[in-house]
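Question (not urgent): is this output format expected?
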Amino acid sequence: MLVLIDESGDPGFKLNKGSSAYFIVSMVVFASFDEAEKCSLAIQKLQQDQRIFPEFKFSNCRKEIKDKFFKCIKPYNFQIYALAVPKAEIYSAALRTDCDKFYNFFVRQLLTYHDNLLRDAHIKIDESGDREFKNEMATYIRRMMKTGCIKNIKFKKSKGDHLIQLADMITGAIVRSYSSKRDSTRWHGMIAPKINNLWKFK
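Got this back:
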């Protein structure tokens, strides 16, 4: 089992001064490594055909490229699980003041909520933060998860990993669905058949 994790939004709480209203963390789950490799190769080919360099990133892609991307990944077998955090409803002082705790807590919430799904999972997370933060995060997740859920945890740069780019594009589509923009549901609708669970934190 291969699990890709990405997030969008920030841990800030200055909601009237530019902080994001929502924090979204999502995971893309492939039961088969062969299927994951096929999907990765398809994304790589699309990247070459469309001359998208250095990577697919939802925030940087034109609308027509987003359309082509989500059509490209449609044939492949994977499931999407995501957590939407409305930050205005978070009152914990620890979460509101410690960015690392905020990030780790909600990644763990997503994983533990689905711990009956994960078995010897190889987890890849979009690389961010320094080495100490990544080590602390990996240790925290392992400590909180049931034995047998996780095989290993790796942090990968999105530029060199097409499946991390997949997680970014999917997370971006989910984030857009919470906006008031005219095209808010355009790409969410394209991935909707693959969304197994999208829940709002309370």
